[in-house]
Amino acid sequence: MKHRALRAQVGAETRMTLQRGETLLVTLGIPVVLLIFFTLVPVLPTGTRHRVDFLAPGILALAVMSTAMVSLGIATAFERSYGVLKRLGATPLGRPVLLTAKIVSVILVEITQVVVLVGVALALGWRPHASAGLAVIAVLLATVAFAGVGLAMAGALRAEVTLAVANGVYVILLLIGGVIFPLHELGGLARFARLLPTAALSDALHATLGSGSNATEGWVVLALWAVAAPVVAAVTFKWE
Amino acid sequence: MPAVEVDRLVVRYGNLVAVDGLSFDADPGEVVALLGPNGAGKTTTVETLEGFRRADGGSVRVLDLDPWSDHTRLTARVGVLLQRGGIYPIMNTERAVRLFAAYYENPLPADELIDLVGLRSVARTPYKRLSGGEQQRLALALAIIGRPRVVFLDEPTAGVDPAGRIAVRNIVAGLRNDGVCVIITSHELDEVQRLADRVVIIDHGRVVAAGRQGEIQGGSEELRFAAQPGLETGELSVRLGTHVSEGPPGEYLIPVPPVPALVAELTAWLAEHDLQLGDLRAGRQRLEDVFLRLTAPVVDEPTDEVSALAPSSSKQQGRGGTARR
What we know:
A: mainly alpha; B: Rossmann fold; six-stranded mixed β-sheet; 31% helix
């Protein structure tokens, strides 16, 4: 019975995510364009032999952030303001199943993103090394962390404010998250940037998919966000 | 056993008391309307019954369960229509119906339900592009899809076109026939008269009158009088041993049966304070009169109450009530 509800809810959530043009722009359009543009145009100090070797892991980090934080946060915020969350609270669906459906839906969209972005990166000459398994773990940790941040915004701020803040944070973390600019090029800002989940994820992905460098700090930061953000969201979330 | 029981319910928002000792109940197969002006506490009461809010005092029971602590057990047996919204704006009618059907063990067939609420022609239209009446009919369909035993409809006809109103009426009639208990809130007297078996009039979070359609309700025997505005109602209340309130300035209400001793005590108090008595009326009121007085914006408008000085008014008889005086 709960399985039927969960399946239906995952289907509905995923379909609506893919139906929203502005969401697709942020989750697929921008990452693909950035990946292709900065691979082909030599303007970035990537520090790798092939620019795509740096860009591919960073853009994957951006993709995870865009779905788990921006898309989930904004969609949930509007569902709250439209009374959808309240109405669902009066059905037998239940909050745990609703939350599970949202997470599963995020992961399904992420799989789509990974397939597209890895395909484009490979076509651009990316040759990833090392452990895809560890990269998957990093992505799952980051998904939990970003979902926590997105839901914390959605559950506390007005929908329009969530929309603005989530997009603003997206741009800032795109710039200082090790996505297109290497962290070591950021000077003093890098110290601060490394405490944020995007840099932590891109660090972990650069390490696991590329250089094989040490990203211990990134893993620790990622794990802390993955615990703290959902706790904050759970405590502060207002359902109506 | 009543399907819905509200016993001396109190709900506060901070310092504001939204519901103040409210009591009523409703049986299976009965349609009960909570009628009152905006801000009377109707929605707060219904939301407490739906398990969205916790009672600060008194108790509420739905199907003999506590809507707050037994919320998850009740959701399968209770249908809800929120005052507004509640449906994904980009989801179309058919998908919304099928999604909600998946939440319930034994839902009504989606296609039959879409036909029942007359939304076949807009089955593929997203919620946000439906008209107000269509949106309300869809919300109504989702409220009954799980074959509930109790249904809460918060302002089901507000802002709804005539076709929507008829759909609401037909569905409510169907629910009644199936033995479902329906609780409706409304601030529209006419609509409530069409829909409900019984009416509970609420103001300032309290029941001010209750009864069946067209009935003179028994609980509101009272004494009203007019005098200069701004009397010391506190002092008078103590003297009479009941709560005296000033409605419109200069009009006072004593909500107890107007026995001669009470009248004597009142006039004695007025005499002691050298106050002139403008008008003195005793009696019972019809629900319509109670409600119209509550919502009347004008102070000086002559009201319809049964009056000791003017035993009946033509307007009241014109409504064809079964008034017994």
